[in-house]
Amino acid sequence: MILAGDIGATNCRLAVFDSNLSAVAQGFYKCKDYSSFEEVVRHFLQTCEHPIESACFGVPGPVIEGRCKLTNVPWEVSAATLAEVTGSPVTLLNDVEANAYGLETLRDDELVTLNAGSKLPGGNRVVVAVGTSVGEAALIDVGGRIHALASEGGHADFGPFDEEQWQLLRYTQRQYQRVSYEVLLGGQGLVQIYNFLRDSGYGVTPEWLEQEMQNGEPAASISNAALSGQCQLCVRALDMFVSILAAEAGNAAVKFLATGGVYLGGGISPRILDKLHQPIFLENFVNKDKMRNFLQSVPVYVILNDGAGLQGAAWYAKRAISSVV
After folding, report:
1. 3-state SS of the chain?
2. In this predicted structure, what is the pLDDT of residue 122?
3. pTM for this structure?
4. Does position 118 have pLDDT exceeding 90, yes or no?
5. When comparing pLDDT for 323 and 193, which is higher?
6. Mean pLDDT on 159-176
7. Distance CA 181, CA 128 (A)
């Protein structure tokens, strides 16, 4: 049996998979309720009677020599310590690295095509995952063997495209000295963009929306109001958000020569699918001067399966067992 885990900034998901990568036991935990990831794993294993042969966990942060200090969770994770807890070999992967391996497990109906392109068999693939944070990873085929390349690309500096985005950068620098793509695309990025537009005189917040934002989740309120067309300021904010996401997806495509496609992961893209289908996404994705023709040929997909990272960790652990045998 394989133990796999996917740690997010808010939640942890653990599951035991059989040799066919079918989940036979699962657990879902709030990070804030535990002092360490080891505590989460112990809790899960107490309810699980399956013997563990191998374990793999996707963690949000850079993994260096089997250790990771998580970026948005106050935990430090060690493969060696977790091996003592599980009684099996343990591998740590960056969470989006695990998501990239998860591409090997997805069915066709778990992907939505934004740009058909001309996919090359064995071509490099890229995952750009947008949720509480922003993560990026590449998947390459070397002699028929798949390898994921982890990165911390979400922390790269934001590159404004036009005057309005330069104004957004200057506005955001009042709060953040250095503005990364994660600041504008992760978590409260849509709220940051909305606040910029509101404070710059592009519109006012309707009273009903103000109350809804105070009583619930502001980013969701803005997104819902934009998708329903109830608030034009929200529409403009979501348009700007999507244009920045598209530009960064295009950046990832040209950096990794993603002839196998760009895959949008994380929790946000599936929720704004209607907006991503509009011309604004593809126009900003391909807008790279000399690389325009290349980017028009790059397939772009949205991952609908929110368990891709968990399945990717299980896929990697299974391959580790096969390699030993």
Report:
1. CEEEEEECCCEEEEEEECCCCCEEEEEEEEHHHCCCHHHHHHHHHHCCCCCCCEEEEEECCCCECCEEECCCCCCEEEHHHHHHHHCCCEEEEEHHHHHHHHHHHCCHHHEEEEECCCCCCCCCEEEEEECCCEEEEEEEEECCEEEEEECCHHHCECCCCCHHHHHHHHHHCCCCCCCEHHHHHCCCHHHHHHHHHHHCCCCCCCHHHHHHHHHCCHHHHHHHHHHHCCCHHHHHHHHHHHHHHHHHHHHHHHHHCCCCEEEEECCHHHHCHHHHCCHHHHHHHHCCHHHHHHHHCCCEEEECCCCHHHHHHHHHHHHHHHHHC
2. 92
3. 0.92
4. yes
5. 193
6. 94
7. 11
On the question of pLDDT at 49 being above 60, the answer is: yes
| Dist CA 310 CA 314 (whole Å) | 6
Mean pLDDT of the chain: 92
One-letter amino acid of 173:
Q
Token couple for 152: 């911390």
Model confidence at 325: pLDDT above 50: no
| Predicted local distance difference test score (pLDDT) of residue 173 | 95
Residue length of the chain: 325
For residue 150, CA distances in Å to 64, 69, 98, 191 come to: 11, 15, 9, 28
pLDDT of residue 213: 87
Whose CA is closest to 263, among 315, 238, 220, 298?
298
> Tokens 């390699």 appear where?
323
Scan for tokens 């063997």, then name that residue: 145
CA distance 233 to 197: 7
Read off the tokens for 24: 């036979």
